[in-house]
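Hey team,

Filing this mostly as a record. A colleague (T.K.) asked me to run one chain through the structure pipeline before their review meeting, and I want the input and output archived in the tracker in case anyone asks later how it was produced. No errors, nothing strange. Just documentation.

Input sequence:
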Amino acid sequence: MAGKDVEQRHEDQLKGSSDSGGIKGYLLHRAKPYLPPWLGVGAVGAASTIGHLVWSGDVGMGIGLTLGSVALTGSTWWAAKSTGRERRLHSAITVAAASAWTTHAVAFGPAPVPFVVGGTVVALSWNIRQVMRRDPDGAKTTSSDGGLLEKVGLAKARMRDAKVEPNRVTVPLEVEGGEQTNDDVTRALPRIASALDLPTTAIRYSPDPDSARRGDLVIVPMDMLSEIVLWEGPALPGGSIADPLVIGRYDNGDPLQLWLPADVEESRNGTHLLIAGGTGSGKGDGALNVLTEILSRKDVVVWLSDPKAFQDFRPLLPGIDWAVEAGAGTEAMVEAVQAVIPARTRWLGVHKYRAWEPSCAERQDDPAHSCRTDGTACGCEGMPFLVTWFEEAANTLRALGDDAFTGIAQEARSAGVSLVVSLQRPSHDQMSTSTRASLPSVLCFGVDKRDEGFALPDTVLDAGAHPGVWGNRRPGYCYLVTPGVDETLYPSPARTRRFTWDSVSLMETLAAWAARNGAKPDPITADAAASVVGKAYTERAQHKEENPDEGERTVSRLDDEDRDIDPNEELPDPLPGEENVIFGQPEGRDLSADEARTVLEEILTEYENEGTMVIGPVDVMKHGERLGRKRGWVSGELQRLLAEGRLAETAKPGRYRIVPQLVDA
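Output structure:
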């Protein structure tokens, strides 16, 4: 019976039929609840005394009383099976003691002293039990769980007043001190879900960080995420990248949001983001939610690598500053990102910024953020936030090595740069543990159960998060772990918005807006990128040019010397002597070492001019007929050029970055 019922019954007993006044009445009322055990002791004493006078010396009666005592004790134990263990044991011992005393007293006569001592002990034990059952404080703090906690192995845990919200119940829970910990609660979550007939993702536990035995049990009885919500545009067009990116909703209807830049005043660190999810999990739509939010902000520049040839992102390309596919373009982008980090960090330092903030993107007219030593405003051009996005990053990691992003991830946050890495399987064979540890935020969709531990922190999994349960059966369902979000929400399921074919037109409109109104690369970032990858950046693969009429950008893949050629004009007739010319034939003689080196330099220049800034021996050997040399000679010459500074090392052995000789930034 609940504490409130026990207290009420006690008050009813005190207010019984007695109507005596004064001190006598008060004492009688207070004594009434505790009289039954004493009356029982008196009844046993009277019965045993009368029995001795009547049946003393009767052997048959003695045997009967003995058998009756055993039967009565067994009946008491059986009848009390529905009560608590302590009450059942207390009742059986009391009946056994009373019946044994009666049998002995009938046969040999009552002994006053042992009877008085034993009877007093028995009566007082029941009085004490009555006192302990009355717990006014406990009645206010504990609630009945219907035997739930006992069923799941937490019988001694105490539930306090529950907080009831729409589709969410939060119950403060405290386990038995010294016997159980919060870990016992997390292990019991599947059994609690089973007892309540709910999915495992509907039960979460948030331990109190200041206690090993207290926390909040969260129960979400209905799946409010089952309704699909279509993407209808960004949440804050024209806002700052420092404002939250709204990408969906939690299971209680609250917005799902994240921040990329740091906020010194809020003590929030900048972050990099891992987007993980298997095929069919909704990871693509989740990525679009994040990227469209980023592109809708006025003070951010985006660089994108997508080995899938922009299958999902093509409508957004006009708003992206630099977009490359797999291979040499991605290699160049990685090298450029590594180069811009120290340049941007240096700019922030000399302008007295502890971290990137929205004012960094504006003209530096505040003397407090001047790079001059005379205390006047410097007027330097602002530096927008930079997002470097690597889609289907498993492809990039295989090509560049699983530590390709480690240095970037460890250093970029202090430079106003966020790294976004998206891949299907966030497992140890896809990404090094060092790189994974450098990606503090994760947007995790349905994954293979074996990958849960690499996708989400153990504490979040222990609290009830199970992306492996969803797989590809709950597209868009996700967990978000990121700075700035209450940690109690980490194990709470959420869902991103759905993109359809009808979304394409709005995505194109957003991209056109970003092309016209979005931030442009600052000189510091542009010069640093151009200094290491040259035309790969200054003449980006998209070769975007502003179209003032449509607000879109066109694509040009022509070499400089071919820009004035009309593709519809007929070719002129060959001049005399040109009819039988065949190009590309060997010259018929071996090249000297100096001549071969000259040809090698021509090959490097050709790669540089087309924007391929990362090469290896295999790329040079594609022109092997021109060189007349084998791979061993090429490898040796590349090492010589590396020593001379014409080439630079990259993160992957055997791949070299061409150092631009002259770049128009």
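Quick notes for T.K.: Residues 138-143, 542-563, 577-588 have pLDDT under 50 and may be disordered. The chain has four domains: 3-135, 142-219, 246-521, 529-563+591-658.
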